[in-house]
Amino acid sequence: MTETISSKNSAAKFLKLDERGRRALESLAPRLQELCSVNPESVPVMEAKTSALTDSVIAELPVIKGEDLESVFSRARKVAKAWVATDIRERKRLVLAFVDTVLANRDAILDVIQWENGKSRGSAFEEVYDVVLNSRFYAKHAAKMLRSKRVPGAMPGLTHTQINYIPKGVVGIISPWNYPFNLAASDAIAAIMAGNAIVLKPDSQTPFSALVVKSLMERAGLPKDLFQVVIGAGRELGTPMIELSNYMMFTGSSATGRSIAERAGKNLIGCSAELGGKNAMIIRADAPIDRAVAGAVKACFSSSGQLCISIERLFVHRDIWDEFVPKFVAQVKKMNLDASMDWKADIGPLINDSQVEKVTEHINDAVAKGAKVLAGGRLVPEVSKRAFLPTVLEGVTPDMQVFGEETFGPLVSLYKFDTDEQALSLVNDTNYGLNSAIWSGDVKIAQSMALRVEAGTVNINDGYAAAWGSIHAPSGGFKDSGLSHRHGEEGIVKYTDVQTVATQRLMPIGAPKLLGEKVWANLLHSYLKVQQRFDL
Ligand code: NAD
């Protein structure tokens, strides 16, 4: 943080940011309240939504009640019926038109994300990038992934067997506040390309990015009710959404995810749960140190550490500890913490007071039990009310909260290790298994270690972007970090019911009368033996 930034912090600065945010929101979603799916007959409760960047009220939005969801889903079911009949090439055209609107409005979108969430502009850009990447990927590949496939049938030559992918119908999506634009759009686009309609409930703190997604989809020509946004409390809307959806896509904490999965299981509907993590990075003794330092700083503090795949545990080999740690700490101390909408800030303020409390609690508890703060450790109120310095801890032990609990903030703990075996055992010593990273000069060793890391994604010589950005590959969590996947073929097939159609020709399957059961069984037996013998 520099002096100029502290002195820039004033009411006038926030007023300017508000003006800029308001202009951006008006240009992207001029009919803001009409974009919220509310039953016109019910008198909606209006709720004021504030900016995490400036704390001012952005707008009042109508909050939906559980009983209003039936009409929302009934509209969704209607539009889903028409949408499933829409040729996939037309779906592709419309999704690519949506990409055009996103690319054309990049700066205004970044302003809205920053205004409502507070994150740095670079982190906000990751959201826009992700939406374009996902949308283009599924627009381009959905037809191939969901094309009916011919497979060998029960009786070669006599059974024609085909696999079909039938859209689920209406997909309910519940998303968190930390990536409000891409978690509103990217999962929805995959489901839309598969032929479904969407009802999205964004986190109550960040509804505006979701409404911008809806507005841009309509601008691109996608049908009006194909993507509906409902604003309301998760506790109130969660159960009716699960009752009314044909599939649930949830992103958020492991505790809520577990409860969503239970309720989805009770209704026997599919559910995807992308949950929390306590992600680890291993820096081996042969790691390229300067690259690893830069990679670790980005992986720990992107989006102020409020990123599900960000690194909270850093394991450094004893032989390079004395070189790596001072370099890492120096880079962290140089990070530019600011509440702004320019590209200069490396890290923005936290979203809300409870995030500040959680980070503070983890630091205080660790320090009280003997940990040492190597960098950061406090708020910088001159920058903004919730501007928290990127923080590095050393000497963390298992009795400290930060050892095993997800902080979900700008806080990383450093640990020393001696062998790969020891590093792997420490990395896997958690109930979570979302993301991980290994830095090494020997890629082969790192790749073989990766097979033993209990995490859905392992980045080698990167922190998170390499795996996340590999859109052809699935992304999801092991253990308490989730169920199912997004990205890749898995990320779209899950939004379909997989159906097998087998057409039997010429003769039914069973013993022909002329042969009798015994001869028929002997024939089948010989057939199986030939297959086994020649490995057919
Ligand atoms: P949260 O679980 O409290 O909230 C997430 C969403 O669930 C919000 O929309 C909220 O309104 C809704 N919700 C809350 N209670 C509900 C209930 N009983 N029924 C239905 N919906 C309910 O999560 P959070 O703390 O706001 O978000 C941060 C968490 O999300 C972190 O643990 C983070 O790691 C995780 N996350 C995971 C991913 C991923 O892809 N794995 C991505 C982003 C965030």
TrEMBL record:
SUPFAM superfamilies the record matches: ALDH-like
The record's listing under Pfam families reads:
Aldedh
Q: Which GO MF terms are attached to this record?
A: oxidoreductase activity, acting on the aldehyde or oxo group of donors, NAD or NADP as acceptor
Catalytic residues of the enzyme? 274
Q: Which UniProt keywords apply?
A: Oxidoreductase
Question: Matching InterPro entries, A to Z?
Answer: Ald_DH/histidinol_DH, Ald_DH_C, Ald_DH_CS_GLU, Ald_DH_N, Aldehyde_DH_dom
Q: Which residues form the Aldehyde dehydrogenase domain?
A: 51-501
**Entry keyword Oxidoreductase:** yes
The family line of this record is: Belongs to the aldehyde dehydrogenase family.
Q: What is this protein called?
A: Succinate-semialdehyde dehydrogenase (NADP(+))
